[in-house]
Amino acid sequence: MEIKTYNPKHPVLKKYIEYYYKTVLEDHSFFAYPHYNLPVSIISKAESKVINNKVVVSQKSKSNLQSFTYNKFAKPIHIELNGKCNVFCLVFKPYGLVQFLPNSINLNSQKNILIINLFDNLLEYSPNFSELNINDKINKIESYLLSIFQEKEDSEIVIKAISIIKKQDKLSIKEIAELCNCHQKKLYRLFNKLCGDSPMVFKKIIQFRKALEKIKVTNSSFKLTNVALDSNYYDQSAFNNAFKKLTGEKPSQFFKETEIYTPENIYFKEVKKVNV
User: Fold this and answer.
1) Sequence-ordered alpha helix ranges (H) in the chain
2) What integer pLDDT is reported at residue 252 of this predicted model?
3) Is residue 233 within 8 Å of 239, Cβ to Cβ?
4) Which of 170, 150, 162 shows the shortest CA–CA distance to 38?
């Protein structure tokens, strides 16, 4: 799997989008793992359907754009692609996607995967979008996003809270709320409204991703016990339990079978497709 990443160009979008990536996949099946960022995949000439915790994307001849995202990204998501699929993904920051959605869209759905209509009008805006080169594609999608951008109230509080969690993950949610000059209940309400989940869930996922970076990027020879303690888990048992909840596997098994792509630390585990 070859993945190329690109940075947002417009300063407003840099605040809410971490990066873009593109890839071309044919008859691929893989797992994506929990992250605090929110990827939205756009696939040209395709049709998607959700089956439990799995999204199946099939190639179609009609000219359309199918987009989906991971709503409750706190467990592995299985993605199966049938046929050749051109994938363009926008990786939004945790509070980013909602800035481009109408208030009627509910990010607090209990579904883990959502087929969304954010880009349904993109083909009217740019009929030849799927045929554009990557530079023109980014220009078109940024122009489109800016046309529907509506900054949500109190976004700055959530932005500050997530920044604090990343730097000081030993703090309690109450302490984080105090540093943001807001009540703990308000912080929970804002996280659920803008990010689709609680600050405690984000804290756990940020802790998990830090552990991944220590093992897979910083020093692959780290002992798991050291990683557990260095990542502020109580002990290795707590680390193993948290890891299994988020990946469905023990750490030792996960790192044997999972590949890392690009400097942005995208983790996928490829699986063999079962043809029925």
Assistant:
1) 11-14, 122-125, 134-148, 155-167, 173-179, 184-194, 199-212, 224-230, 236-247, 251-257
2) 76
3) yes
4) 162
pLDDT at 250: 81
SS3 annotation, 121-150: CHHHHCCCHHHCCHHHHHHHHHHHHHHHCC
Cα–Cα distance, 212 to 166 (Å, whole number): 14
Tokens matching residue 205: 């996922």
**Residue 17 forms beta bridges with which residues?**
92
Closest to 81 in 3D by CA, of 54, 119, 52: 54
CB 59 within 8 Å of CB 45: yes
Using an 8 Å Cβ cutoff, are 42 and 66 in contact?
A: yes
Please, what CATH class does the domain formed by 155-249 belong to?
mainly alpha
H or E segment to which residue 266 belongs:
strand 266-270
Give φ, ψ of 68 to 5 degrees: -145, 160
Task: Tell me the pTM.
Answer: 0.85
Half-sphere exposure of 266 (CA within 13 A, CB side): 24
Return d(Cα 181, Cα 184) in angstroms, integer. 9
pLDDT at 56: 86
The pLDDT score that the predictor gives to residue 85 is 81
- Mean pLDDT in consecutive groups of 10 residues from the start of the chain, 276 residues: 89 95 86 84 80 81 69 75 86 92 59 67 78 91 92 94 90 95 95 89 85 67 74 81 83 73 68 57
Measured distance between the N- and C-terminal CA atoms of the chain, rounded to whole angstroms: 24
Q: Assess if CATH 3.90.930 describes domain 4-148.
A: no
Give residue limits of the domains in the chain.
Answer: 4-148, 155-249
